[in-house]
Amino acid sequence: MSENPRPMLPHLRRRALHTARRGWGFLTADLREPSPSTAPLLGTAHKRWLRMLPYVVAFAAVAALLPVTINVLTNSYGLHGALAGALATAQTAPLLLAVTRPLQAWWIVYGADVLGAVALMGADRTEGLAWPWPPMVVVGYLLLMAFVGLREPRRTLVAVWLATGAAGLVFELLSQTLSDGVHVLLFVLTGVVLVVAGALRERGDAQRRLVAQETISESERSRRTLLEERTRIARELHDVVAHHMSVITVQADSAPYRIEGLPPAAHEEFAAIAAGARESLNEMRRLLTVLRSEGTEGELTPQPGLSRVQQLVEAAVRAGVPAELAMSLPADALPQSVDLSAYRIVQEALSNVVRHAPGASTKVSITSDGTALTLLVVNGPADGPAAPLESHPGTGHGLVGMRERVRLTGGELDTGALPDGGFRVAARLPLNPPVAPKDPS
Questions:
Q1: How many structural domains does the chain have?
Q2: pLDDT tens figures, 320-350
Q3: pTM score of the predicted model
């Protein structure tokens, strides 16, 4: 004995109402606010004519379909001229709106097509003509589906497709004698167009997201490179600052023994200075521990200066780069921060020549006018395969590292390609660096 199916009817009714409400929500979403996926058609195209292509297609379609639709509805289907003109305009003109707001255009065309099918039921039409959708309606509707598929999300496309099929089914039930199966053809073709257009839209969305992600990744890589270079510079400057702090400590400790007749207050002041300097050294050691990254625990050698630039040039020569050095330094010792920064800039410039312009003739010039140190590294075009550069290979951060070291000393950096295919690096470092150079970022 079969169970009574009545208890299942309320549940099925609720499910059907819920599904209908969701479908209605998808179809009316664009009426309330633009869909988040409605990016301009071909909006990422670089050529302007590609961005204008959808508007040209829509305008051409309206210009071609409107007079044909009016003529067919009037002469073949026997509609009154005014009614035929109104229906034809409502069925074709919204294609212009479909370029930017396709769902709103669909509502207008869908309503006009339904009203047209109702009007054609009682018209004195020629035998054999399609109903409820005339051929012009099918063509215009499929073009509209292409615009909808390229702009709206997948759930909206499903709702549009089902609404199209539902309208055809209703007219089939109303008059099976008038219907010739064109509603089935439109239903199938609409599904095909929506699937193809939706796939193209999703592919375009994926490409835009990929480009955006690549842009973000490139920005993050640049930022990480900059931070790594700044950390490296901070580790190197630790030795420079620590040396000065050690000198202050020794001088403060030995002052009472070197200077006779100091009052007790002066003894206490020097002792406080020495204690503060020692405490600062301890804090700097803790800071250096934080700044050291993995694999840098052994970086305990003294920081180099311009006295070792000749070794860099010789290493570049052994790597296949014919380099020449011209250096004229002031008699007074250079500030250690300037000395270290100048060495690293020359080192990075020569490393770049070996990596990117093997065999290029290179000239290194280091001069001083008493107020600033001028560095100039100029190389010609590449003239051979790259060879490994002996000595320290540079930081690997190229121009980023140079800019940071120049910024540290408050100097200026000018880099750029030369007309003959070579490259030029010019830096000017003040011999008295500012206390806090401005951050260009």
A1: 3
A2: 889 999 998 876 778 888 888 899 899 989 9
A3: 0.51
- Type of residue numbered 255: A
What's the pLDDT tens digit per position in 151-206? 899 999 999 999 999 999 999 888 877 778 899 999 999 999 999 999 998 888 88
CA-CA distance, 52 to 45, in Å (whole number)? Answer: 10
- Non-local (6+) Cβ contacts of 293 within 8 A are 231
pLDDT of residue 239: 65
Could you tell me if 169 and 42 lie in one domain?
yes
Tell me the one-letter amino acid at 349.
A
CA 306 to chain centre: 41
User: How confident is the model over 3-28, as a mean pLDDT?
Assistant: 57
At residue 143's C-alpha, the angle toward residues 188 and 46, to 5°, is: 125
Could you give the strand order of the β-sheet that contains 423-430, starting from the edge strand earlier in sequence?
323-327, 362-368, 372-379, 423-430, 412-417
What's the distance, CA 254 to chain centroid? 60
Instruction: List the CATH number of the domain containing 365.
Output: 3.30.565.10
Pairwise CA distance, residues 388 & 393, whole Å: 9
Domain carrying residue 151: 8-215
Residues 278 and 387 placed together within one structural domain of the fold: no
Q: Report the alpha-carbon distance of residue 308 to residue 329 in Å, rounded.
A: 13
The residues with which 76 forms a beta bridge, in sequence order, are: none
On whether residue 240 sits in a domain, the answer given is yes
CA atoms within 13 A on the CB side of 357: 24
Dump pLDDT digits (tens) for 70-97. 999 998 888 888 999 999 999 999 999 9
Q: Are residues 48 and 127 in the same domain?
A: yes
Least confident residue range of 147-156, 178-187, 234-243, 251-260: 234-243
Is residue 265 located within the same domain as residue 357?
no
- pLDDT of 48 strictly over 70: no
Nearest Cα neighbor of 149 from 215, 193, 207 is: 193
